[in-house]
Amino acid sequence: MDHRSQSNPERLVAVTGSSSPAANTRPRQRIADYYPRLQRRVVIFTVLMQIVIMLTLGLLLLYQSSFNLVEILVYVILPATILQSFMSYVILKYVLAPLNILSRAIAHVSNETNDVMPPNVNGTYYERTGIKGMVDTVYALALKDSDGADRPEKVAPSLEVTNAILAEFPCGIIALDEQRNVVYANALAPVIQDATGKKSITLLFQGDDTLDSWLTASENNSLANEHIWARIQTALLDEPNRKLCDVVATYRKNGTQGIDTLIVTVDRTAHYATDEEDMDFIALAAHELRGPITVIRGYLDVLSDELHAQLQPDQIELFKRLSVSAARLSGYVSNILNVSRYDRRHLKLNLREDKLSAVYATIADDLSLRASTQGRLLSVIIPENLPTIAADRNSLSEVLANLVDNAIKYSNEGGSVEVTAAADGNFITLSVTDHGIGIPSSVVGHLFSKFYRSHRSRQNVTGTGLGLYISKAIIESHGGRIGVSSSEGHGSTFRFSVPIYSTVADKLKNSNNGNEDIMETSNGWIKNHSMFGG
Q1: Is 206 helix (H, G, I), strand (E, B) or coil?
Q2: Helix 78-109 vs helix 34-64: angle between axes, to the nearest 10 degrees?
Q3: Which stretch of DSSP H or E encloses residue 250?
Q4: What does the pLDDT read at residue 69?
Q5: Which of 39, 371, 393, 437 can pair with 376 through a Cys bridge, CB separation 3.0 to 4.6 Å?
């Protein structure tokens, strides 16, 4: 039995302090303040002791030597005091370091509110000196409720109340332990349980910004971290009980009660329903446009063939450009329809060996005309000797046109837009840079979201908010990545990368030039190589 349960109450009063009103109103010292206060007291005491010692030494020297008092103070006592004080401080800081670590660990697991971070004791030094063992013991003891060990009947009601509150909470709540096992999930949490009893989270994250990747980075680089995701699906578009959630995750290494990660999901399906309806309408409109566009393309081909002998060279060139533009328009309509396929993870492209310079050449004239009419200088440097890429030419040209067109829109009149490309490992990276208004940091994270348009964009530039979303879908379906870096008031650089053909040739041959095999998926979402930080 714990001897604390047999303690005399009067003895406890004597130990913990006076029972007078004045004593009861005295604020209790915070655990987090213990080490700084102790350190200050020890340093002050040490310095005072050194001063006393040096003064004593000086008096002895004065008594036994011919030095006057000023010389002894300047040349003996003062330098000796400074040196001794500094050395004492260094020694004390080294000696008190373990106490600092322990006080931080105790403050971290205490019930008081503070911003003390848990100490990082991962290292051979801490294991060799035993500090890690002491900190682990503190954490282990913190997991035990000493009152609950003696009086379990007092803990049960508390747990029941907590569980009742969490069960009725209007958000999904998920708790993960150090091994990322689901140790708690309320009724609204997107969690399923298999036949073996193992629980899994049913959130479908897009690209590389997943819960797993964030947790890995947090575990390796942080003692505490948090992250927010918007518009995360709990199921694919056609599946029942599909919800769209905003997700907030917090991580704390060696968290209390064995919980390292807490995830909160907020059901925002109703909020995002308008966007879903807009997409359905756009897809319907695009579907209806396919018929007339196909007819226009057919008549252009017929007229070009039948009138070819009667046409002048400039007229023949005009027909060619009309045919190319009609084909591109048809491709744009197809890609709008592909947005819904992308949401369902069914977006498929026909990838073939191609040169990036050749892809750009299909839209070069149109973009040059666009830049000149807007008073912009367009500079394009795409070396011909770059390795070939795996590309769906029509789709990739749409991405290029969209990025360059945006750079022209958002750059200043008379400004320049630079398009450059270079090899980057197994990928070719293309950059589109403008020197215009730039993008606020609060906006950058939302640029590739469906239907997203910033307040400034809605005021000054027309658009649907689908361009960058479609571009992202196309690039990721190529097995690549797209991103942006920007400085408000100085311009922006959009970059995308696509794989070099030789690195994926075998996979493309096995899939009959389909893009399925070059897209490594996790939970139905595309995961590719890591790229630049933007």
Answers
A1: coil
A2: 170
A3: strand 244-252
A4: 65
A5: 371
Question: At the fourth CATH level, which superfamily is domain 345-527?
Answer: Histidine kinase-like ATPase, C-terminal domain (3.30.565.10)
- pLDDT of 171-186, one tens digit each? 899 999 988 999 989 9
Q: Is 483 helix (H, G, I), strand (E, B) or coil?
A: strand
Is residue 50 within 8 Å of 85, Cβ to Cβ?
yes
Cβ 415 vs Cβ 438: under 8 Å: no
Q: Are 424 and 382 in contact (CB under 8 A)?
A: no
CA distances from 113 to 24, 32, 142, 222 (A): 21, 9, 16, 20
Number of Cβ within a 10 Å radius of residue 401: 20
How far apart are alpha carbons 434 and 411 in whole angstroms? 6
Q: Could you report the per-residue pLDDT of 249-304, keeping only the tens digit for each?
A: 999 888 777 889 999 999 988 887 776 666 667 667 777 777 788 788 788 888 87
Six token digits for residue 250: 């917090």
Pairing mode of beta strands 416-424, 377-381: parallel
Q: What is the pLDDT of residues 13-63, one digit of tens each?
A: 333 333 344 444 444 445 555 567 667 766 776 777 777 777 766 666 666
For the chain, the structural domain boundaries read 3-142, 171-267, 270-344, 345-527
Of the candidates 347, 353, 376, 397, the one whose C-alpha atom is nearest the C-alpha of residue 504 is: 353
Please report the DSSP string for 172-230 in residue order: EEEEE-TT--EEEE-TTS-EEE-TTS-EEE--B--TT--HHHHHHHHHHH-SEEEEEEE
Six-digit token string for 399: 């991405």
**Two tokens, residue 233:** 């699906």
261-267, strands of its sheet edge to edge:
182-185, 172-176, 261-267, 244-252, 224-233
State the Cα torsion 343-345-347-353 to the nearest 10°. 130
pLDDT level of residue 493 (50, 70, 90 thresholds): very high
Alpha-carbon span 303 to 370, nearest angstrom = 28
HSE-CB of 31 using CA atoms within 13 angstroms:
18
Averaged confidence pLDDT in the chain: 75
- Burial track 63-75 (b if 16+ CB lie within 10 A, e otherwise): eeeeeeeeebbee
Question: What torsion, rounded to 10 degrees, do the Cα atoms 89, 92, 98, 101 define?
Answer: -30
- What does the block give as tokens for 331? 């491709």
- Name the strand (E) or helix (H) holding 324: helix 313-343
Query: Are the C-beta atoms of 354 and 389 separated by less than 8 Å?
Result: yes
Q: Side chain identity at 211, as an amino acid letter?
A: L
Record the pTM.
0.47
E-strand spans in 268-367? Answer: 352-354
**DSSP calls for 71-122:** HHIIIIIHHHHHHHHHHHHHHHHHHHHHHHHHHHHHHHHSSS---PPPP---
The arrangement of secondary structure in 171-267, i.e. its CATH architecture, is 2-Layer Sandwich (3.30)
Q: Mind listing the pLDDT tens digit for each residue in 89-127?
A: 777 776 677 777 877 888 777 766 777 777 777 777 667
Which residue has 């807007």 as its token pair? Answer: 374
